[in-house]
Amino acid sequence: MTPSSQAQALALDIGGGHVSAARVDLNTRMVLPGEIHRAVDPNASADALLDAWAAAALEALAGDGLDGDGPPARIGIAVPSPFDHAAGVSWMTHKFAALHGVSVRDGLRDCWAGTALADVSLAFGNDADLFTLGEWWGGAGRGAGRVIGVTLGTGLGSGFVADGHVVTSGPDVPPDGELWNVPYGGEIAEDFASGQAVRRVYQSSGQEDYSASAAGIAALADVGDARARAAYAELGTHLGGILTPWVAQFRPDAVVFGGNVSRAWAHFRSALEAALPGVSCRITMHFEGSALLGAAALGSQGEQ
Known about the structure:
15 strands; Nucleotidyltransferase, domain 5; five-stranded mixed sheet; 2 domains; alpha/beta
């Protein structure tokens, strides 16, 4: 049985080249059928970007069982940084440059005028923070009081959640809750813990295929390639080294890993756990769905 609209949130996840939108059951904490994925040109005009995001939301709203049942309880949107979440204003320049200084909140409101979403409360959050919140609320970190989330893709993302609240300041977390640029190994953490880092380590091992992606290297590790497995083991060791001081400060009940590179979990888990003895390290339950759950959870922080 499909829940009523007031037992649902509408969630959006804005990526560099895509938008995902879905309804989330606030009782079961699950993404409902009808999830929408659309490619979006990050170099498009402001109007084109806002229209695409608004249309994806309306299409997801019209999924099975909601037609005629009223608006959702709230809308949550996961966005990359830099972004003023409280004001709803984008400050990105590396992507979505046309939206720099633009109120995304007002723009979406204009797009939704006259629809069921016109007056629904709207909240924004950082995508890595909402990955972590989503895992705390309805994923691998559910039931834990304090969770660190780590997303491994082209770069390194992170989030810190305590009792359902995202923590971005204070002595227990790095500045803005971001690990990617903390000093490590004479450089920054992202240089040692990311898909690009795995690729660089593999290339330095003398392999002839210098075009191999992190996913391709994982596939080689799956069939026993020793150098590929070593590259992922090194990733696990570096992740442990990067996280060690923040685990000591934040004292998480769980550290949850997501992002596409974490699909190679079997190849770096042992090295990671050896570098973080006694820490509960877990793989995401939802991958791309985690940020949608986190976006839906905005407004319900603290609900175990």
